[in-house]
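We include the pair:
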Amino acid sequence: MLLWLISWWQVLFTGAQILVLACLPSSYSRANRQRMAGHMVAGTASVLLWFSGLAALLSLVLTRIVVVTAESYGLTQYALQVVIRVLVIELIPLSAALFVALRITLLSATELAALRQQGTLAQLRAQGQDPLVREALPRVLAGMHASITLAALSCVVALVLAYVAVYGFHLAALPAYTRLFGQVFDPSVTLIFVFKTLLFSLTVALMPVASALVDRMGMARRPGGDMNMLARMFVVLLLIEVLCLVGNYY
């Protein structure tokens, strides 16, 4: 239990350090900006088409299932509301965060762990450079950028495909669809949606990187250490999702 508490404290403390550095103007020198931009573009570009295609396929399948089911029960007027609430508000942000974690941030954490074990981070510190600013911060910002970008783009794709699946390729029903969208995304739902997306992106970007930077009293070298870190990240994501569900529906 003591080791578990210390490992959590080290991860939280390292994550807080990275967040503070992200808010400091001194962290965004010309060289650092170039590294951050390179990580952001490379990370997002590598998964953008894949996730957009998967989100489009998922949107078409779920929209068709919900619409056909609603028609069979005479509840067609509620079908699009269900699609928007379930797909756009709940599934896509969580799916984008998990996709970024598996394809980007876990790989970044592995790279940082290798640099740490090789002594590269210690060499940077000895040269007067902050390894958190040079190596960790660009990877965290790249993970956050990829998660937010994928979530935003996939929500737009899902909304467009839902409209096409129900109304077809014409704009006659666009005012009614816009009114329906406004009824679902009231101010409270919109605020919770934005905060949830930001918290998801922050969790999947920070936790793997922070875990790779701390020793955790030898726990990082234990078999299954990476799986434990992944499980803890899933728990945090689940807690965020539960809190947002409570805020939206209770």
